[in-house]
From TrEMBL:
Organism of derivation: Powellomyces hirtus
Metal-binding found in the keyword field: yes
Superkingdom field: Eukaryota
Name of the protein described by the UniProt record: Iron hydrogenase small subunit domain-containing protein
Keyword 4Fe-4S on entry: yes
Pfam families listed in its UniProt record: Fe_hyd_lg_C, Fe_hyd_SSU
Classification of source organism: Eukaryota, Fungi, Fungi incertae sedis, Chytridiomycota, Chytridiomycota incertae sedis
Region (Disordered): 454-476
Database matches in InterPro entries: Cytosolic_Fe-S_CAF (IPR050340), Fe_hydrogenase (IPR009016), Fe_hydrogenase_lsu_C (IPR004108), Fe_hydrogenase_ssu (IPR003149)
Keyword line: 4Fe-4S, Iron, Iron-sulfur, Metal-binding
Domain spans labelled Iron hydrogenase small subunit: 474-534
Recorded family membership: Belongs to the NARF family.
SMART domains per the UniProt record, alphabetical: Fe_hyd_SSU
Length: 545
């Protein structure tokens, strides 16, 4: 299994590699008495402390939880390459087995409602590898999780992403108006960036990528107020499942077990954040995250091949789907990038709300109707500007896409306030960035290339065919990402795009579940906050093993 690992600031790279700065495994309790000892490793890999008198003590295996990773500043992003035992398909198997046992023993009160929510990027990755359509994959996953394994519901996080897009767009407009009305002040720049104190701080930075959030919290606390307070689609689905669905079926949050299938290992860290933990019921909004690769592994563990699986028809509940001409629900697509389409939707929403300009999806894609697109130094960096007909040389909105840590670091440097101010308070006026909004993702090529996605078949390349095997491998990787991207876009190309405001179910939920779009409950369920992780003085690289 390949984890996304972590990066060291001194060895920054576009790809996240394992960090040696993790200090948790080397915390040793010192005895008050001085004694020399040695470490012995037996044939089974067990570690023993051998004292001078010949006595031996077996040492415990270091165990690191996801909470440890979040609380430790030794790494910039996640450190899942160490001994993590939770958040795997085994946890799901255990819950399903416990349900089966409870049913057999006639203990219905002990049966937990199991909900699986699937990311569209994961569907696309499986579709690309097995030459299926995302719709075919979704139908087979419905059968696999519900009929074969015994889950009760299977949902689509493209549905909860509509909440995320709407909330992000509204927050951006509020910030933009405050910023340009000169209402923001220095007391709006606290590192505790709750929605109420976001003020007019620009640029607003996307919040859907947990690797990027972890990086910001552990290395650049001054940037936290710039980050969109909206929860990611995964966590909004968690709120929807535990709070709304649980209430509808008469189950408290701890009696609903929510699993999400994600393209990224860092989503496991996101689900483990304390902000998404219900102290009253001792449960998380998302109980377990399994990656696309782990789902493929589950197929093998169950002795199944995806081509041989049966299919179930698409369900409309919490799924981005509309009825086809035959009356059967079919998946519908979303606009913009395969990382969620945040830039596209927020730019169109802001253009209409702030300037009365109606932009189509084609305007954003092709750079028309006042939209100007400027390519960056690489494919993962692009700028989008909107100019009004009255002054086509002066952009009124300036957005950007930045994927991969190299691009992120360069943008962070531009946002870094120029004036020397305190660690805990900086003013938006000192920021040097000219952007209004940036769609940021930690992985090169974005979520479609997440660390938990299926990878290109290495046998598909022929290194002996050319003088540079690494070039051949790079080409194969790019081709594979393009194939997964095409699979992701297949839904929109086939069934069309459904805009968030056109999703009638979202409107119903705003009224029935949240009491409106700007209520206290809407803020509680759809928004979050970020906190700086204090630096540790321990240098993991200096530890003697």
């Amino acid at each position: 299994m390949t984890f996304s690992g972590a990066v060291l600031l001194t060895d920054l790279n576009d790809f996240i590699t394992p960090s040696q700065a993790c200090i948790k495994p080397v915390e040793v309790k010192r005895s008050s008495e001085k004694s020399d000892s040695q470490i012995r490793v037996d044939d089974t890999g067990g570690y023993y402390e051998v004292m001078q008198d010949g006595g031996e003590t077996k040492l415990e295996t270091a165990s690191i939880s996801l909470n440890d990773c979040l609380a430790c500043s030794g790494c910039i992003t996640s450190a899942e390459s160490v001994l993590i035992t939770l958040q795997s398909q085994k946890e799901l198997y255990d819950v399903l087995l416990a349900n089966k046992t409870a049913i057999e023993e006639r203990r219905p009160a002990d049966v937990r409602t199991v909900v699986v929510s699937i990311a569209p990027q994961s569907r696309a990755s499986i579709a690309a590898k097995y030459d299926l359509t995302p719709l075919d994959v979704h139908k087979r996953l419905l059968w696999f999780f519900k009929q074969h394994l015994g889950a009760h519901h299977v949902f689509d996080t493209a549905f909860s992403r509509d909440f995320s897009l709407l909330e992000s767009a509204r927050e951006f407009v509020r910030r933009y108006q405050l910023h340009h009305d000169n209402i923001n002040s220095s007391n709006a720049m606290e590192s505790d960036s709750s929605p109420s104190n976001a003020g007019g701080i620009l640029p607003m930075l996307a919040s859907a990528c947990p690797g990027w959030i972890c990086y910001a919290e552990k290395t650049h606390d001054y940037i936290l107020p710039y980050i969109d307070s909206t929860k990611s689609p995964q966590q909004i689905m968690g709120s929807l499942v535990k709070d709304y669905l649980g209430g509808k079926i008469g189950q408290p949050p701890n009696k609903v077990y929510h699993v999400s299938v994600m393209p990224c290992y860092d989503k496991k860290l996101e689900a483990s954040r304390q902000d998404f933990y219900n102290d009253l019921y001792a449960t998380r909004d998302v109980d377990c995250v399994i990656t696309t690769g782990e789902v493929e592994k589950m197929f093998g563990e169950q002795g199944l091949a995806i081509h041989d699986m049966q299919s179930l028809e698409v369900e409309s509940l919490f799924t981005k789907a509309v009825a086809s001409s035959y009356g059967i629900p079919a998946l519908v697509g979303t606009e913009g990038s395969s990382s969620g389409g945040y830039l596209s939707y927020i730019l169109r929403y802001a253009a209409h709300t702030l300037f009365g300009v109606h932009l189509t999806l084609e305007d954003i894609e092709n750079g028309t109707n006042g939209v100007q697109i400027k390519a960056g130094r690489n494919n993962d960096l692009r700028e989008y500007s909107l100019c009004l007909p009255s002054d086509p040389s002066k952009p009124v909105l300036k957005f950007a896409i930045a994927y991969g840590f190299r691009n992120i670091q360069n943008l962070v440097r531009k946002i870094n306030p120029a004036a020397p101010v305190t660690r805990r308070r900086r003013t938006a006026a000192t920021a040097t960035s000219t952007y209004d909004y940036i769609e940021i993702m930690a992985c090169p090529s974005g979520c479609i290339n997440g660390g938990g996605q299926l990878k290109a078949d290495p046998t598909s390349t022929n290194p002996s065919a050319g003088p540079a095997p690494e070039k051949s491998s790079l080409t194969a990787s790019r081709n594979w990402i393009a194939k997964a991207e095409d699979a992701y876009r297949w839904v929109a190309d086939t069934s069309g795009v459904q805009l968030p405001e056109s999703n009638a179910a979202i409107g119903v939920l705003y009224n029935e579940w949240l009491g409106g779009p700007d209520t206290e409950k809407a803020t509680q369920m759809l928004h979050t906050q970020y906190r700086a992780v204090e630096k540790s003085d321990v240098n993991g690289l200096a530890v003697k093993w």
